[in-house]
Amino acid sequence: MPDIILNRHIPEGYSAADNSLRDRVILVTGAGDGIGRTAALTFARYGATVILAGRTQEKLEAVYDAIEHAGYPQAAIYAIDLKTATEADYTALAEQLENEFSRLDGLLHNAAALGERTSIANYSLASWNQVMSVNVNAQFMLSKALLPLLKKSADASIVFTSSGVGRQGRAFWGAYAVSKFATEGFSQVLAAELENTSNIRANCINPGATRTRMRATAFPAEDPATIKTPEDIMPTYVYLMGPDSKGVTGQSIDAQ
Ligand code: NDP
Prior knowledge:
Blueprint: E1 25-29, H1 34-45, E2 49-54, H2 57-69, E3 76-79, H3 87-101, E4 106-109, H4 125-150, E5 156-161, H5 174-194, E6 200-206, H6 213-218, H7 234-241, E7 252-254
Parallel strand pairs: 1-2, 1-4, 2-3, 4-5, 5-6, 6-7
The structure holds NADPH dihydro-nicotinamide-adenine-dinucleotide phosphate.
NADPH dihydro-nicotinamide-adenine-dinucleotide phosphate binds at residues 30, 32-36, 54-56, 59, 81-83, 110-113, 134, 161, 163, 207, 209-210, 212-215.
């Protein structure tokens, strides 16, 4: 059992200390846009060295520049397409991080593919496989490759990104919903395996409705002004990435 049970929310009124992520090395997938972009900038603001992983170089460079411009710790860019990357690609990534940083303190699995919004009867196998590759298989390969580096940290945190449809299936959410159930399960398996054998904790965040490109694609009729911004949900990300959540593992937390 975890040391601390949060009951799906971080402590009320939580506010992180300015330097709470100082000297931490944190990798964020999908760091070029949406929630991942804001998480990368926020982690850097709290003192972390952030490795910006994603598939669109220009977007990653823009985040890198924003971090530099703000005077936060210098970031690093690692371009990788989670849809096509092989186990050898993840091994190469781990080797490069080992050479440059010698350890990893945080891993935010944030990137995801939405896939088709249609019935199972109409769902294409190609789309199903793409969603599973990005949302599930890549998380497995990346986590596995980076475990040795995470084990070198005194206080490491792996954070997965879930969804409401990863806890209760809903019509027309297809592979995306199934992949988020898999994410919740993977996080629990990993947390249980690591709990008494390492300093690594693993938890899920369910962001809730958040103003991003993916949300606009999934809900084209929604007025974006009525939902939270990525900045609004950052306290949960900083809490789970930093020292204040020590002892919290195997849980699924709502950011709203
Ligand atoms: P966005 O579409 O805004 O951002 C997704 C990010 O993932 C982008 O940076 C994108 O890169 C990257 N990405 C997608 N496919 C790949 C790939 N094959 N390889 C590498 N990077 C990839 O989505 P959100 O910010 O909204 O979503 C972030 C997370 O939050 C996801 O896991 C999503 O499922 C989850 N979520 C979001 C909610 C919301 O309301 N927004 C609600 C519940 C969960 P690029 O920009 O280059 O395409």
